[in-house]
Each structure stands twice: as structure tokens, then as C-alpha cells.
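Q: I'm building a small set of examples for a reading group on sequence design. Run inverse folding on the following structure and report the sequence directly after it, with nothing in between.
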């Protein structure tokens, strides 16, 4: 593998699950932007949002992309908002092959509802507000996500099938 394989998509689209399995299949490392930022900052993404604010986190995401140059080709999963700030999407496309994991809004709402506590953008919202947030944000973000090199559906939780679809594209 010459370049990174980069997975983008909304919170709950399955980037980490698919990314870990894909990395295993390809025999390369799996890197997650949130986890890398947390390790570097010494605190959780939620704490970064609370203590330093979202703008600071978005700067750290930008630095993460710049850092991809110095890394061995890996499977890289990035935070749901990352492709939608600055010129991040163009930058990501220069660092590797970008795959958008496409999941319908209804499925995303169901998935993120269950994990709301660990998501700083959702933690304080009611059920109804979470649905509205996902609907609104997905519309806004889809414009960015769709610039990916490839769009892969990941509607059902069938990791094997989605990984196989990506491997087919990679040849
Ligand atoms: C965010 C998504 C999260 C994390 C942060 C903000 C977003 O990553 O980066 O909470 O703006 O959608 P995941 O997509 O991995 O949950």
C-alpha cells in the first residue's frame, strides 16, 4: 500500500469498526484522529471541547492531517466533523484514498442516540434535539463528504461486507 486509506463519515457511520478490520486485512496500522489527538493532548475529546473549545479541537484536527505525511501508509479514521472545516477535505484527498461511509439519517440517529454521552456535540441534547441535530448537520456535511474518492454504503452492521467492498475498490 503506497498511500493512506482514509475513512470519513458522520458520527456513528462505523469508521472505527470498519477501519480496524480493514487495517487487519491490509496488514497495516489503524489510526484514529480522535484517539491520536486525545493521546497528544492528554485528555478526552469531550474534555478538549469543554476546556478549550471546539475551535481549538478543529485546529488540532488540522495539525493531525499535516502529520499524516510522516506516517507509514495506514488505515486512518477521522472525526465526523474534520472534512467540513478549513480546506481539510482537499488536504485529506492529497494524503490518501478517501472513502465516505454512507449511512442514512434514520440509522445514524439510532446509532448516536445510544452513544450520546461520549459525543460532546450531543451530550446535552434531548432525544428530539439529537434527531434535529443529525438531520441538519448531515445535510450540511454531505456536500463535503461526497467529495470523497469513493462512496461506500454502510447501512447494515455487516463489517465483512463493507470491508470487502473497500478492498475491491483498492484492488
Ligand atoms: C465530531 C465527531 C467525533 C469527534 C468530535 C466531533 C463531529 O468523532 O471528532 O466529537 O463534529 O462530528 P466521530 O465521528 O469519530 O465520532
Amino acid at each position: 500500500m503506497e498511500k493512506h486509506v482514509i475513512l470519513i463519515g458522520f458520527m456513528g457511520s462505523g469508521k472505527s469498526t470498519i477501519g480496524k478490520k480493514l487495517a487487519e486485512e491490509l496488514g497495516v496500522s489503524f489510526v484514529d484522529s480522535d484517539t491520536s489527538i486525545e493521546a497528544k493532548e492528554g485528555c478526552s475529546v469531550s474534555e478538549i471541547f469543554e476546556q478549550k473549545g471546539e475551535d481549538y479541537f478543529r485546529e488540532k484536527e488540522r495539525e493531525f492531517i499535516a502529520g499524516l505525511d510522516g506516517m507509514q501508509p495506514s488505515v486512518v479514521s477521522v472525526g465526523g466533523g474534520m472534512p467540513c472545516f478549513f480546506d481539510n477535505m482537499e488536504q485529506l484527498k492529497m494524503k490518501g484514498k478517501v472513502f465516505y461511509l454512507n449511512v442514512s439519517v434514520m440509522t445514524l440517529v439510532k446509532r448516536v442516540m445510544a452513544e450520546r454521552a461520549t459525543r460532546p456535540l450531543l451530550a446535552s441534547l434531548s432525544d428530539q434535539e439529537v434527531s434535529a441535530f443529525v438531520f441538519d448537520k448531515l445535510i450540511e456535511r454531505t456536500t463535503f463528504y461526497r467529495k470523497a474518492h469513493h462512496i461506500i454504503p454502510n447501512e447494515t452492521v455487516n463489517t465483512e461486507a463493507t470491508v470487502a467492498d473497500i478492498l475491491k475498490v483498492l484492488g
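Helices lie at 15-26, 33-41, 45-52, 54-67, 88-95, 105-114, 127-145, 159-170.
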